[in-house]
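User: My instructor asked us to take a sequence, write out its structure as tokens, and then describe one feature of it. I'm not sure where to start. Here is the sequence I was given:
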Amino acid sequence: MIDLGQSKEFLSSLSNVSHLHFQIWDADEGLVFSSGPDEPAEPALEELQDFSVQIISRAAFQHIPLESGEGLFGVPLRNGQAVAGSLIAFGSNSLQKPLPDTATAPQPGRTEEMERFLTQVAEFVEDRLTSQQEMEQMAEELTDNFEQLCFYSKIASRVKSITFSGTMLQELVEELLDTMRTDMAFAKLPERPEYNALVCTQKIPEKIGDYDDFIDVLLDSIPLNSPSLKEDYFIVNDSSTTPGFTDLAPVPYRFLAVKMKHNGNFYGWMGLVSFNFEEIFRRSELRLLDSMAEQIAVVITNSDLYRDLERFVINMVKSLVFAIEAKDDYTRGHSERVCRYSLLMAERLGLDEERKKILQWSSILHDSGKIGIPESILNKPWRLEEEEYQIIKNHPMKGHTILEPLEQLASSLPGMLHHHERYDGKGYPQGLKGKTIPLEARIIAVADTFDAITSNRAYRPSKTPEEALEEMEKAAGTQLDPDLVEVFKEVFTRDLAPEQGCSVEEQS
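Assistant: Let's start with the prediction itself. The structure tokens for your sequence are:
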């Protein structure tokens, strides 16, 4: 079915300022729009339907002259190569009565005039239809590709405040030692030694020696056939009477360890050691330790899942960007470079991780709207016509429209939408000025400018980094945020100049 969108408003407005009424007939659904204030009489409506069928079947302009002197005109509406329907125009008084069997001759020149006029109106409706379909198709494809992201993001939000880290585990072990009547508390992860944690009281016998080695020896000595391992724990109530543990320390001790395990994944051990035999390990302490170990294992699992999600999303977005840049022979790798430059600036500015994540999405997707621009315009080797330039200027808004249905990217859309605003307010799409332009957009604008100048384009060769910096300095305060240009110069000197064979002296 033809989705007219804003074309209805256009045709209604056109009808109000002319003596014409317009109808659109869908090849499958019949009449889908009429701008006339009153429906024609039933016989006339049937005649119009027959007229529409004739237009669609012949796929050409049709005309029926009427006794009233008004004509009945129609052109086919195409969706790609196929005829999807018909656009019909007639005078306001043409259909007050049923269509006659015979008709008068057409007014001289009227037929040719109406054919040209209706063809132009049809082209407008077809363009809007094609654009709408392109945006809907892209949004649908992106939605399909992001189905897993939508699912994983819910999980990520739940562990966001407790993302696994060595600091978090160290703090938990310290709290464990404070709560339990024990002398040592530890967490050991064989595959993740950077997360290992060990805290002790001041009551550890001097003869024990290296505490880390002592814990490692205890864990290595746990017998694999111990019945308690079926419940994911192991306990030594008195090392002096427990075979295999008597000679591991010069003084008696108590030892309790539980597995950090979730969904069959074993991450390591969490445990306690005590040299005080006036106390024992109670069942409640075992349950508490087991509960902590299980919760930590869940957080580790979720953190791993979240990191996998990030890698998946980055790779998926790279695929999307590659598809976009494949349309332009001269900008392959552009989005990734702009993303890298932007994140280096963010690091220099001291932005927090959340802000960096927003900037990452904004920068890598900043040209996503170019997916709907013909290659003939993107790769044109000479100056663009004004109409072509207007199409290019629409890419930030088109990208915004395509990605807007994806709630996960909502915070990144402003940076993408406004990266062609100018600091002096003469940019697009909204003419924002100065600091009213989102910070992410101002950062992307600087990074985008540098990469554009230093890259080959269809209409000019690349320039050197030094020449690019000179042009950016000239644009500071007009096109670009002057403060961010200075930040980029610092980033270039520190991070980019060595890679590109430039010396610090060359930048001074």
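For the description part of your assignment, you could build on this observation: The domain at 7-130 is CATH 3.30.450.40 (Beta-Lactamase). Try explaining in your own words what that tells you about the chain.
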